[in-house]
Specification:
The chain is mainly β and 360 residues long. The chain is 4% helix and 23% strand. It has 2 helices and 14 strands; from the N terminus they run ααββββββββββββββ. The strands form 2 sheets. Strands 2, 3, 5, 9, 10, 11, 13 and 14 form an 8-stranded antiparallel β-sheet that branches. The N terminus is likely disordered.
Length: 360
């Protein structure tokens, strides 16, 4: 069990690791007792974290009192690193280490320091962010030409790639993701945890026989620090499906799937309960006329995207969680979508249900 708070450090990895082998694991105990100086329930002079570190007992994992919640403190370590893990704000020296794996075409994964000419999508943490796509990430800086005939539903010139049949996963998303919604509102009925998607945001997208194509994911397995009760990360979503198939069944999606004792299912959805997709309420940048300054010089000119959003979800202190961040085409393998990911962290905002709100 990893115990600790994110601290300063830097990683010197080079290249984007797209293996499916866990990249790092580790265990750390706190080296300072400053955050655990109060007497424990037995009245001794050791703080709770000291007792846990010394005995291996984790009362908060079983509902005990772990004391004051402390938001994670983090010093970015992605300066000059072409590394998706560092770009996400993970596994800097001194951090409680997590396991990170990926699935998808390596050409659909990248690290960027910005997007577009205005700074609208500057990194949220450090100097870089990670990118996943259902198309080639190298297309992102290819500007959509005026000659693309949108009225005729002609395929776009850029960000319109088939990544290969080996990345088409069909109607059953990779475990633990599930397309059934039998979980209902799990915050009202914890007994339903693990039986489906608590958010009820995914199943409806597959009811017409839809399948997922060009599926790309990053998967994080982590031990929740004993001093935290929530997990959060920032993201932005873009799609060339707009305007062709806006409000149609061709609805490329982004999913942030959490497996936790506190919540099972998608944690990234809009205020109306819609998944993050072409039809989500957060699609603020709709460049119908090709003149939106934020999207100039990119393949999203004449298309659409969101601003930076942040998802926050409840977790249980001391448990091991799995967080899968995935993007895919729905119903076909063309007209690509992308997600930017940044600023992973632990917090003190645990509630009964996740929430997603604009932050940039």
């Amino acid at each position: 069990m990893a115990i600790g708070i994110l601290t300063a450090g830097c990683i010197a990895d080079e290249g984007i690791d797209t293996t499916t082998t866990p990249l790092t694991t580790g265990v750390q105990l706190p080296t300072s007792t400053a955050a655990a100086s109060e007497d424990d329930d037995q009245g001794d002079t050791l703080g709770k974290l000291d007792v846990i570190a010394a005995t291996g007992e984790m009362p908060c994992a079983e509902g005990g009192d772990c004391g004051e919640c402390i938001p994670s403190m983090h010093e970015p370590c992605d300066q000059g690193a072409n590394n998706m893990i560092s770009a996400l704000g993970l596994n800097c020296p001194g951090d409680a280490q997590v396991e990170v794996t990926t699935f998808g075409n390596p050409a659909a994964m990248a690290v960027r320091t910005g997007f577009g000419p205005t700074g609208q999508w500057a990194p949220r943490e450090g100097s870089a962010f990670a990118v996943l796509g259902s198309g080639l990430t190298t297309d992102l800086d290819s500007e959509t030409p005026d000659s693309d005939d949108f009225l005729a539903h002609a395929d776009p010139t850029h960000c319109n790639d088939d990544l290969g049949g080996e990345y088409d996963v069909g109607a059953m998303l990779p475990a633990p993701l599930r397309t059934n919604d039998v979980g209902g509102d799990c915050s009202m009925n914890p007994a339903l945890l693990g039986t489906g998607d608590c958010s009820n945001t995914i199943e409806s997208q597959f009811t017409q026989g839809n399948s997922a194509f060009d599926y790309t994911e990053v998967r994080i397995v982590a031990d929740v620090p004993l001093t935290n009760n929530s997990v959060n990360y920032d993201f932005a979503f873009f799609s060339t499906e707009y305007p062709y198939y806006f409000n149609s069944a061709f609805n490329d999606m982004y999913v942030g799937w959490l497996e936790s004792e506190s919540w099972t299912g998608n944690i990234s959805f809009d205020n109306a309960g819609n998944p993050i997709s072409l039809n989500a309420g957060f699609l603020d940048f709709r460049d119908d006329n090709g003149n939106a300054p934020e999207l100039a010089g990119t393949c999203m000119r004449y298309h659409a995207g969101t601003r930076w959003l942040q998802s926050v979800a409840p977790v249980t202190p001391g448990e091991t969680i799995t967080l899968v961040l995935a993007v895919f085409d729905l119903s076909d393998s063309i007209l690509d979508s992308y997600v930017f990911l940044d600023n992973f962290g632990w917090g003190c905002d645990g509630d009964s249900t996740p929430s997603t709100n604009p932050v940039g």
